[in-house]
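TL;DR need structure tokens for one chain.
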Amino acid sequence: MKKLKIIESNMLPLNMSNVDTDQIMPKQFLKRVERTGYGEYLFYDWKKDPDFPLNNDIYKGAKVLVAGDNFGTGSSREHAPWGLQDWGFDAIISTKFADIFRLNSINIGLLPIETNQENIEKLFNKIHENQKTLIKISVEDKTVVCEDISFSFDLDNFSQKRIIEGLDKIDITLEYVDQIESFSKSRKQWKPKLA
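>> reply
TL;DR here they are.
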């Protein structure tokens, strides 16, 4: 996983509520076995509209997606956060995330930030005024700053450590390799044997 301490970028606005994982990553692209390469299929059906924000070159390279209420609902497909990250996003800001989508995002180092509707509207207004408006997110301080807008966000300490240090589940398991090996060796002593 990529280490994330500070994210500084312009923002891509997706002022839509209840965006579900079926739209983020349509079912026909779930047959691939790789975890990369999903970015080109992100919002596949919606990108057919030339005015869809992902088609606007001014947002190219944006690492922060600002979304409407209740982002990532629907099925629990991991491919949705994979596609968002593969496109280039490091963080998503919304008023609410589906629990499984939130966990799947954290598991790959994609930062889900929840804030109130007032802050979301202020961010949308900033983007409307200037599409190149910069936002700065500190994972260490759990803060978001965009010109005169600033707020903090909740992130449990374990998830914060994982994102800052770029630790996926395998990395975390490997931190306990000595204890695992010790348990494995000691287990043989008490393991029941067939006569």
